[in-house]
Structure formats: structure tokens, C-alpha cells
Amino acid sequence: MIHDTAIVSPLAEIGEGVEIGPYSIVHGNVVLGDRVEVGAYCELGVTTPLGDGSPLVVGDDALIRSHSVFYESSRFAPGLVTGHRVTVRENTQAGAGFQIGTLSEIQGDCTIGDYVRFQSNVFVGKKTTIGNFVWVLPYVVLTNDPTPPSNDLIGCNIKDYASISAASVILPGVTVGTHALVAAHACVSKDVEPHTVVAGVPARAIGDTGTISLRDGTGRPAYPWTDHFTRGYPGHIVDGWKAKEDGEN
Amino acid sequence: MIHDTAIVSPLAEIGEGVEIGPYSIVHGNVVLGDRVEVGAYCELGVTTPLGDGSPLVVGDDALIRSHSVFYESSRFAPGLVTGHRVTVRENTQAGAGFQIGTLSEIQGDCTIGDYVRFQSNVFVGKKTTIGNFVWVLPYVVLTNDPTPPSNDLIGCNIKDYASISAASVILPGVTVGTHALVAAHACVSKDVEPHTVVAGVPARAIGDTGTISLRDGTGRPAYPWTDHFTRGYPGHIVDGWKAKEDGEN
Amino acid sequence: MIHDTAIVSPLAEIGEGVEIGPYSIVHGNVVLGDRVEVGAYCELGVTTPLGDGSPLVVGDDALIRSHSVFYESSRFAPGLVTGHRVTVRENTQAGAGFQIGTLSEIQGDCTIGDYVRFQSNVFVGKKTTIGNFVWVLPYVVLTNDPTPPSNDLIGCNIKDYASISAASVILPGVTVGTHALVAAHACVSKDVEPHTVVAGVPARAIGDTGTISLRDGTGRPAYPWTDHFTRGYPGHIVDGWKAKEDGEN
């Protein structure tokens, strides 16, 4: 259902079962898949000369919460879920099941894999590349300008299954390896090896992720987190993780 | 006065003298006390399966500024004041005179005492406990996941009169003691003793709060701050602080 | 064009060619110059007892993006550009060509020079003074209370051409010198000399800005940045920088 007060361009392509909340605006260069739900006060498909002319495409079964803003020329596979007041600029491509927390901002020209989860107030500079199953916790800043101000934007590269803890900053061009863990409030100026924990300002490697135990009383290892944390991932994904774990044991 | 453009459910319980600004939305599971003032573009009582079914209750004489979002199943004693674009999720209980700065977010399942003041852009993770008369400065992050991602959320515990300076991060499960001071941009990984100052990444104790002087030229001690800072607190509270101070002298 | 759903006070002074987006609110104590463009869901000229009674004045050719809030008693020279969800409180004066990134907040009683650029989510406490051509990167916090909570607000002072990198915190009363560079995620507790780089928590001087090279493969010095970065500045400004550089060589 489209609320009476929503302003939806007749040029926008709207799927079946779409809901658009009060006072939201959908511009013409927008494609919304089936069963997309848009909250109140959202603006979708903001035009920009920085886009490539393609529409904002939101795949099926998305939930975009209130006060969010999406520009044209970005594309989301099915299952997008956002918090409130999210901003996504142009030329961003994201895979399935992407979750973006409240107040987070993606500045555009970014590539993001499948089942990535941003918590609240995450900042993603232009030209960032993020793999699959990455976790980014609140107030993390992914930078891109090595000598501000300059024209040499060099995005960060966050690999599959990496987890970046709250209030950390990743400096321009840094690669965070697969299954790596960045501790809270770290400032990461060098590449992080896979399965490695880094901490501090500047961040230094302090060990292997395999040495960290869960705080649930079992003493089980906390990493790789795919061995114990499966909430919200599709069954076939979790089955793949389990098969891999069984094969390793 | 309720603005013509506001959308207010007939199921909502609205007190006397309530003002609701342009384009704001009040859902059905909401109780607003007397003289509550709600700015423009707010959404109150967002429904969620994570709530306990109880309404959003906003006590008398509250001021909720524009673009704010409150979910159902949270309860605020009288005198709530918010900045703009505040987000409060379900199952949060807060005492009298709570102030929440612009852009701050409370993720829910939190307990907050009386006369707590958050400045701008404060993040409060689920399961946080905050005492009375606590100050939290801009861009502070109160975390809760010791091994992200996990299901073991362990909230922070901030005791009465503690003051947490700008851009600090408190790690999961940490207790900050009464009248303690966390310096700006600290990363607090261990419990902080009462009346103690901690600073750095990771934060270490650097002294007693009693050794810090005000910067007003008088040389008076800055802590306990209740000896010199009383703006906005009710008279009976301030009288209690004065009596205590007199008794100690 | 003023959108049908915008609520514009007849007392507001609106220039020629002004555009006001859907659902925006313009209160009476507001002066908008010619060709000012205001996005959706903005509220301009919020009244406050903390103002001096003067209007919010937005100079010609400004662009204020959606969900932004400006109070009365602040004044902007021509060419203001904001991101989304910007908040500016009362008694702020800013020069020409001021850019304020998405989610940034200026708490009021601030003085800001010409051609200053804030990126996203910058926080500026009361009583801050900022010179001309200053850059402030994402998630920077400019504080003002040396002993929170107190009544002794002492603003930061950021001098011409200084650049403050992402997620840094500047402590109350600190002066950052002309052409200085604050590294990312620094906590600056002492004054920073001109043309000096500081880094760390607490920040220490680590060298002269002249020793840093661009990452563009040329090996040219990155600072002073005015020697290579001119995007978006007016021709007469850039000509002045070039003349100065030629004079020095």
C-alpha cells in the first residue's frame, strides 16, 4: 500500500506488494522489487550528475526504515534491510541480504558483497570494497584520502568474514584480511593478515583470532564466528559453513 | 495543538496541552502525558515484534525535537528532552529529566536512571545500565558484544554521577564507578573505580578526580561536579547535594 | 518553486528563484537569498530563546539538502552547501562557500571563515572558532568543556588551511595552527604548531607537513595542499594561491 501522502513519480517502477510510508518521496529513476517496504520521510532516487544514468534498483523483500535517503545509480540485491536515516549515494553495488544500521552513510562508488552487516553510524568512503559476510560495528569509519585534501582517493578493502569493532578507523588503501578482527577503537594503518586480531592506535597485531574464547561460559572459540553465529543467514549458507567446519574437524 | 498534517492514531492516549508538529506520526500504542511537545517529522510508537506489547509512554512536560523516532514498549518518566533525530528502540526505561542529544541512539533493553544527560551522537547498545545523574558526552559509544558477532551481549554499567568524555568507547560489560571520569577518546576495557580518572587506548587510571581543578580561574576542584554545576536540576536535588557537601566540610 | 506541501511563513523573506522541497518548513524569522535550494523535510528558522533575535540568513546560491535543521540567529554568506540531516544552532556566523557534510552538527555561538569544508558527521561544540580554507574530515569532534560537566566552555581554534583527519578529537581550547595536519583518530590535547603533523592518543608532533608526499605517483609534496588541490574554489582564490607559490619558488 502506498500512503496517500507519499509522492511517487509515475516513472518509477514499483513491484507487487510494495508499501510506501507517509510523506515519502520516490523519484522517477527508481526500480523497487516486490514486497519492498519503505518507511516514512524517505527519499529514493535523488538525482545526481555523479551517477551513470542508471536507476536506483532495490531488490525484492527490502525494508528501508524512516528518514533514509538513496540516490539514483545504485543497485541492491534482494533482502536489503536498513535502519533509520541511512544515506546511500550513487554508484554503489551491494549483494543479497545487506543490512545497514541507523545513521550509516555510504558515499558512493562502492562495491559490497553478500550478507554484509553494518551496525549503526558506519561511514563508508568512496571507492571502498567490501567482501561477503563482513561485519562492521557502530561508529566505524572507512576512510579514503591519504593526504587530505587530495584527489587521490584510495578505498579500503575489507575481505570476507572480517569483523571490525566499534569506533575503529581504517586508513586509506588498507586491506583487512579474511576472518580478521579489528578491536574496538583501533586505528588501522597497515594491512591486516587473515585470521589476525589487531588493536591500538596505531593498530598492531596482537594474536590469532583462534585464541579468543566466547564469553558464554562454554570456553568454545569465538572465531571463526561462522562456527557459532548463524542468526538471520539463509539455511543453505549456514549449511555450507557447517559442512566446512565438519570437514576441518 | 496538533498540526493539521500530523497523523495521530485514534488509539493513542494524548494528555492535555500536547503539541504535535507538522508531518509527525503517532501510532496507536502510545501514551503521551500532559504538555508533551513533539516537533516535526517525528514517528512515535513504531511497532516491533521485539517489544513486550506495552505502549511507548512519554511522561509529562517532555520535549521531543524534530525527526526523532521512538518505538513502542519504552517508558520515560516526566521531563524528557531530546535533540533532533534521536532514535530509541523498545524496552527502554528511563527516569525523570532525561536529556538525549541530537543523533543519539538507544538500541533498547536499557535501564536509565534519573536526570541522565546524553549530549550529541551518543550510542547506547542493548542491555546497558545507567545510574542517576550520569553525563555522556558527544560521540561516546557504549558497546555490548565482546566477540563480534556473537549472541553474548553484555551491557556496560555506568554508575551515578559518572562523566564520560567525548568520543570514548566503553567495552562490553565494563562498570564505570560513581563519580568517575573517563577522559576524551579513551577506550575503556576494565572497570573504573569510583572517583577515578581514566584515559588512553586502552584506558588506564591516571589519578583521582579530586586533583582536577576548574578552568574558571578560581582553582576550585572540578569534581565532584555536583559541588559547582547545578544548571537545570530541580531545587530539591541541588539542595540535597549542598547538604551533603556541607556535611563533608 | 516552492512545493505545494512546504509550509512557508508569510513573514519569511524569500529571494528570487528559490526552491523549497516537499514537506519543508520555513519559519518567519528567516531570510533566504536568491537561488537558494532547500531539499525535503528541512526546518529552517527554528525559534530559540538562546538566539539574539536576528533571523537565520542564508546567502545566495545555497543548497541545503534534505532533513536539515537550522535555527534562527545564524548567518551564512553566499554559496553554502550542506549534506543531509545537518543541524545548525543559533548565533553561528559562516563565510562564503561553506560546505557542511551529512549529519554534521554545529552547536552554535561559532565563527567560521570562508571556504571551510566539513565532511560527514563533524561535531562542532559551542564557542569554536574556525579560520578560512579549513578542512574537517568525517567524525571529527571539536570539544569545549575541559571538565565535564562545567560552565567553562572553551572552544577550539582552528587556523587557516589546517586539515583535521577522520575521527580525531580536539580538546577544549586547543589551537591548531595554519596549514597544520592532524592525523586520523588523534586526540589533540596541546596546541599544534603551523605546518606540523600531529598523531596519536594523546597526539604528538611527528614532523613537518612538508615531508609528506602525494600518493599519486608523482612524489610531489602533499602540503601545502593549496599547491595541488583547487577543486571547487573560485578562480580568484586559486590564482592567489598560485601567485604565492610562484613567489616562493
Task: Provide keyphrases for this structure.
homotrimer, 249 residues, mainly beta, 10-stranded parallel sheet
Report on this model:
The longest helix of chain A is centred in the last third of the chain and has 14 residues. Chain A is built from one helix and 30 strands. The first copy, chain A, starts with 6 loop residues before the first strand and ends with a helix. The first copy, chain A, is globular, with a radius of gyration of 19 Å. By secondary structure, chain A is mainly beta. Chains in contact: A-B, A-C, B-C. Chains A and B meet through loops of A and loops of B.
Layout: helices, strands, pairs:
Three copies of one chain form a homotrimer.
Chain A: E1 7-8, E2 13-14, E3 19-20, E4 25-26, E5 30-32, E6 37-38, E7 43-46, E8 56-58, E9 63-64, E10 69-71, E11 75-76, E12 81-82, E13 87-88, E14 93-94, E15 99-100, E16 105-106, E17 111-112, E18 117-118, E19 123-124, E20 129-130, E21 135-136, E22 141-142, E23 157-158, E24 163-164, E25 169-170, E26 175-176, E27 181-182, E28 187-188, E29 196-199, E30 204-208, H1 235-248
Parallel strand pairs in A: 1-4, 2-5, 3-6, 4-7, 5-8, 6-9, 7-10, 8-11, 10-13, 11-14, 12-15, 13-16, 14-17, 15-18, 16-19, 17-20, 18-21, 19-22, 20-23, 21-24, 22-25, 23-26, 24-27, 25-28, 27-29
Antiparallel strand pairs in A: 29-30
Give the oligomeric state of the chains in this entry, treating copies of one chain as homo and distinct chains as hetero: homotrimer
Spatially, the strands of the biggest sheet of chain A line up as 1-4-7-10-13-16-19-22-25-28
Estimate the global geometry of chain A from the Cα principal axes: globular
Task: Specify the biggest β-sheet of chain A.
Answer: 10 strands, parallel
Greatest contact between two chains: B-C, 40 and 36 residues
| Strand runs of chain A, count | 30
* Low-pLDDT regions of chain A: none
* Cα-to-Cα separation, first versus last residue of chain A: 50 Å
Which strand-content bin applies to the residues of chain A?
25-35%
Gyration radius from CA atoms of chain A, angstroms:
19 Å
Helix content of chain A: under 10%
Mean pLDDT of chain A: 97
Specify the number of helices of chain A: 1
Tell me the structural class of chain A: mainly beta
